[in-house]
């Protein structure tokens, strides 16, 4: 059985993951010693709320990389949605965002988090700009975008960086996420698909010292302390 499908409705055994309800939230739970606290998507509280209030607005690295500037608010396809944190930042800055997630369990967490945020006065307007799709962007990006109402001006990619056994032990949340999502060995195909579909630019998030994804070289790089954004530009974004 594929690890992306290895979910149960009973108490998880060591190394197994379970989708279950915890209070008003859907969570993904596993052995706490391996994975820590159950994983949930929450756009109204916690890290997302702090970043919404104090994150730095359009001066943030991701906003600059995606071309959000004074008078310019492009639409964005987040083709590796994950837990939706980057998409929420972009939507909080006014962008219409299509989130594409291929792992069924993570898509379910996103769907649950968006539904709860839609009932919160502080986040309802933001998540109204977030549109969720379940599918594999490496194979079906063009079809997923065509079926949505979001124009593919900017495509944002944040593929999982391959884990090296000799590296420091990753955080428990990331370990849980990697158990489901894998190492995104198909990132070069995803980049190729994004370059075919994006009308203006493709933005790829990478660890600061990591090599670019195999394929064409990025035209521009925006670098932060721990991560960077590789930019592949077709044409400039205009007001």
The CATH topology annotation reads as Rossmann fold
Name of the top-level CATH class: Alpha Beta
The CATH H-level homologous superfamily: Vaccinia Virus protein VP39
Quickly count the helices. 9
Overall strand count: 10
Low-confidence stretches: 1-14, 164-169
Strand order of the largest sheet: 6-5-4-7-8-10-9
What number of structural domains do the residues give?
A: 1
What is the oligomer described by this structure?
single chain
Please state the second-level CATH architecture.
3-Layer(aba) Sandwich
Largest sheet, in brief, is: 7 strands, mixed
Quick one: overall form? globular
The structural class is alpha/beta
Order of helices and strands: EEEHHHEHEHHEHEHHEEE
Portion of residues within helices:
25-40%
Q: Mean of the pLDDT scores?
A: 86
Residues in β-strands, percent: 15-25%
Radius of gyration: 17 Å
Measured between the Cα atoms of the first and last residue, the distance is 49 Å
Describe the protein:
The protein is of the alpha/beta class and 239 residues long. It has a single domain, classed as Rossmann fold (3-Layer(aba) Sandwich). It is built from 9 helices and 10 strands. The strands form 2 sheets. A 7-stranded mixed sheet has the order 6-5-4-7-8-10-9, with helices on both faces. The protein is globular, with a radius of gyration of 17 Å. The N terminus is likely disordered.
């Amino acid at each position: 059985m594929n690890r992306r499908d290895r979910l149960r409705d009973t108490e998880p055994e060591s190394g197994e993951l379970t989708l279950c309800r915890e209070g008003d939230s859907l969570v993904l739970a596993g052995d706490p010693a391996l994975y820590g606290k159950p994983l949930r998507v929450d756009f109204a509280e916690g890290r997302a709320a702090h970043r919404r209030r104090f994150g730095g607005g359009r001066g943030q690295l991701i906003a600059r990389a995606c071309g959000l500037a004074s008078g310019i608010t492009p639409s964005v396809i987040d083709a590796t949605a994950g837990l939706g944190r980057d998409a929420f930042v972009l939507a909080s800055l006014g962008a219409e965002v299509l989130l594409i997630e291929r792992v069924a369990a993570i898509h379910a967490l996103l769907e649950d988090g968006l539904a709860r945020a839609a009932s919160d006065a502080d986040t309802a307007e933001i998540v109204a700009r977030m549109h969720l799709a379940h599918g594999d962007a490496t194979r079906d990006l063009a079809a997923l975008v065509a079926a949505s109402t979001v124009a593919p001006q900017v495509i944002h990619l944040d593929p999982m960086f391959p884990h090296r056994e000799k590296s420091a032990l990753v955080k428990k949340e990331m370990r849980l996420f990697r158990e489901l999502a894998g190492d995104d060995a198909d990132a070069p195909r995803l980049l190729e698909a994004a370059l075919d579909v994006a009308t203006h630019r493709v933005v790829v998030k990478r660890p600061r010292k990591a090599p670019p994804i195999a394929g064409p070289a990025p035209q521009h790089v925006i670098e932060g302390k721990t991560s960077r954004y590789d930019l592949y530009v077709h044409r400039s974004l205009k007001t």
